[in-house]
Amino acid sequence: MQNGSHTHTRIYTETHSDVILRVIDLPTAVDPAKAKTAVKDGVLELDLPKSEENVN
After folding, report:
1. Residues 9-53: pLDDT tens digits?
2. pTM of the model
3. Which whole-number Å values give the CA distances from 36 to 4, 5, 10, 17, in the listed order?
4. To which H or E segment does residue 3 belong?
5. Are 35 and 46 in contact (CB under 8 A)?
6. Strand partners, 43
7. 47 beta partners
8. What is residue 47's predicted lDDT score, i.e. its pLDDT?
9. What does the H/E/C string look like for 5-52?
């Protein structure tokens, strides 16, 4: 882009990734074999049952 005798350069940078990582510390251990996930209308639903040794 030129403006009078000055030359301006604009640089745009966008980064896209297909991986989103979020780590959440849970108060108790879960059974990964029984864990279930679902995505509906952009909402992630997690079903994380407690492991057998943590069920009271």
Report:
1. 666 767 777 887 888 888 889 999 999 999 999 898 999 999 988
2. 0.53
3. 62, 63, 46, 24
4. strand 2-3
5. yes
6. 40
7. 36
8. 95
9. CEECCCCCCCCCCCCCCCCCCCCCCECHHHCEEEEECCEEEEECCECH
